[in-house]
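WARN no homologs supplied; continuing
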Amino acid sequence: MAIDPIALLRKYYRDNPRAYEILLVHSTMVQKKALEVAERVPELHADMEFIREATMLHDIGIFQTNAPGIGCFGQHQYIEHGVLGRQILEQEGLPRHALVCERHVGVGLRREDILAGNLPLPPRDMLPGTVEEEIICYADKFFSKSPEKLRTEKPVADILRNLSSYGEDKAKIFESWMKKFREPGSASLIS
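OK structure emitted
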């Protein structure tokens, strides 16, 4: 059964037009990239309709975080937006979409990452577990929510540099996705 992700976003962002607009543009850019990736690798049999819906909802929890630069004035740290999104979508009866929210942060978070970083998150693995979750997580890394950069795709080298700052293993995961998803023009960056 198809859902209307835009109606769901409007429900939660009706009092926050700035954050809504930023979220809508960001999610649309991620959706476009994710669908392109899924089309490049038809042998993976990704659920395209699910990707269309889940990309639009993956950041639904940001309004509850304290991120004034993108119009969000909530009480939670930004790192919590995935877990908050999961809670929202589970309450909406969308458990599969909810997992995308929780599992798209970085390249996914391991329990060890959460404990070592003393992050305000439940101490459990939050790693992409399906090809659709991997594709959405991967596509999300290409786009910022910074208002001046919303429509600009990040270069792969910048993504790898950023992920490496959290550990070389994070960059290696992204590199493995680049191979798996046959990212154009990135062969020279993959060792």
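The longest strand covers residues 66-67.
OK
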